[in-house]
């Protein structure tokens, strides 16, 4: 592996993954957000640092269920009580890292992890006792899963009571998919039917495709006493073999790192697909809102033309000869029509994805054109529908006042102005609603697949 | 006003059948009936999932109360490896349940009934297979099994009675192994068991699955469960107290502070006697099923709370001021004011100038301006539904939408010919008109006389002026005062006419508004108020209203 080009390609991929977002609550969005976070954490915690410092000691993470006996095991491996053990669960809450003093400089200080030094750690290794993967403490679970993602090898601890629990099997299958170097410790095995338990567990492992993983059973001891060192010799030997010489270490790193890089082929395309789905959903929502407001605008413009504005008070006043009063009535009707159009637009678009922000059901005050020329306004809204008389009468009256030609032009201007006013107001409202739908970059903008291809070529 | 009054009160039927009922179970029945009525009133307004959940639970309440009321189902539930089967064996005095090291051990639920008479329908309801049912007769101490191989004895076992008849003890499978069918079976059974003993153990008592998926969900059922910390003998001696404290702390965090916690061990017998007492007590009282159903109702009430919370309007749903505003808005839309003003003007001109024969025709009412009418109705809808939960606001809007559709035609039909006849002129107006005529005649005669006098014809004189002049002067005075009175009368008549027309048209409009807008809206609000009252009765069991009144 040309590690510089590979590192650069992976860093690029990481940046692009960071740039993705899944704001809309589509089915699968929660899963995508989790997958994104996992991928970023693994690239940051393990892949990129491991490529940068290939000679650092192997990090062996001791993980498993609450109560399985991880901390007891770590204490036995090192030979002294480093991690607190107890009956109150969950016991381990802060991860404990044990390494040789010569390897101290490889590990940066981290307030969240306790660092202990001990020469009895197998050479070329560092042991990390992490919290559990399944207790009520959500923090514990998160930290454990994250640190397991940062490991070169796993020592997975389960017990005779827990070997058939669903929670740890999810992680075991993950390790299998990524070809992570793994050993399993079956702890607290009852003395008598020891072989029954082991055989049943092996059966389950084979069923899950983990038949070739080394399995180390440890017999239950008195509660409260630590594990005698002789019980942990087999697992200790295994660990020592992994970390013994540079070639062995490189083999482990190649395997785990290779597995992770290989898993990118499986994990990045679904993420890209999820990005695409968000983009499409956002587009569909915007289209839905656009269509709703287009229909409302069509309705409003029809109402402007069908003479309904000349009914009621406006028509009454005209028949009394009060042209100014009629024009006033028409303006009130226009206000009502605009408010109505806003309400209808809101109703129609509420079926699309919900948006933030209070709906503005009242439009702001509008000065309608033709405020000076009431007759032109009346003529402009006098449609061919119910009241042919009024519109035509007003047009005729205007024509006698300012000449037929200019009257016609004025009426046309007013009509155009009204339609433009309505269209603009509804468009502004439509814009407000569409803007509330989050802007999601499309697949092409994020470029995940291209970045993945580059990684493949550099590997 | 009840909506949907055609439904049958299923709980009334049950009450009729039941011979005797304890106070608790009567209360349960009353609560269920009230909740049933509330949900029916809210049908088509509640989301589908909530309606379905309510229907399921109320159906289950009815079924369970009708099935084997004397029997109590106690379930041993917990994670794999916790020792449920060992406890089951110790409590039943038999070694029926498989206790092994291979996990998961129990694969199907095992049921032991102490007095199996009448228990069969209940076991069918629970879905227990016949080959997993065991009968344990208390008196005769004989053991019958449905074909299973039975062994007696076992450490700490007690032959014979000790448990009341009517107890059915269940050994459930686990809820956390890789075999997901077990989890499904556990979910089904913990939903219907009357009392649950949660079996924890020192390794797994803090597992997230147990607390998140089960214990926390059962926070209403604190009185229907006991928690045991099993395999207590496997803890170092000094740690047991600390563990128990920790278990209690976790239960408090789950909302189960008042649940009893026991430490048990089937191997050493620790806590077994007390557990036996607890189980016997639960099934001896016979009230466990009612208590469990009551807790289930509590959980459902909490779930449906948002749909019945909110402000309930007082008796007068739609205040007079709001109604006036609605009618005013509709009148504006129809131009009623314009019509009234025009009529007044017409009357004034007609009265004031009685020689103008060309009367203007009666003003007719214009068709209503639709958009302003819609605005008025929307505002009324918002007022009616103020403070109500969103689903009910939607109901009000739907009720008004129909009115919106038919309103223009209704208004136009109502206002046609609604302008009343103008009343004839009053006597005073006629007198004033007469005075004007007389005055006019006198003025003309007087002027003629003055003209004659001016041409030298001798006429009688009064204070130096011809009589005709005086006649003309008098005529002027009479005519002017007649005209002034006539004008005043006409103005008064016009004002009265305006008011009369406006009142008449408004009355017609108010009729339409009541029929088309206010009626349906108030009906919906009344439905909401009734649903709230029923919901409150279901929540408290004593008829207290659930929502608070609007000021």
From TrEMBL, chain A:
Any one annotated GO CC term: cytosol
Isomerase recorded as keyword: no
Domain G: 62-187
Chain coiled-coil ranges: none
UniProt keywords, alphabetically: ATP-binding, Nucleotide-binding
A Pfam short name: MMR_HSR1
Gene3D superfamilies on file: P-loop containing nucleotide triphosphate hydrolases
BP terms from Gene Ontology: ribosomal small subunit assembly
Domain of life where this protein originates: Bacteria
GO terms assigned for molecular function: ATP binding; GTP binding; ribosomal small subunit binding; rRNA binding
Matches recorded under InterPro entries: GTP-bd (IPR006073), GTPase_Era-like (IPR005662), P-loop_NTPase (IPR027417)
Protein name listed in UniProt: ATP-binding protein
TrEMBL record, chain B:
The G domain, residue ranges: 74-204
Pfam families found in the cross-reference section: MMR_HSR1
Transmembrane residue ranges: 437-457, 463-487
Keyword Transferase annotated: no
Gene3D superfamilies, A to Z: P-loop containing nucleotide triphosphate hydrolases
GO biological processes: ribosomal small subunit assembly
Tree of life domain: Bacteria
One term of GO molecular function: rRNA binding
GO cellular component terms attached to this protein's record: cytosol
Protein keywords: ATP-binding, Membrane, Nucleotide-binding, Transmembrane, Transmembrane helix
Name by which UniProt lists this protein: ATP-binding protein
Species name: Embleya hyalina
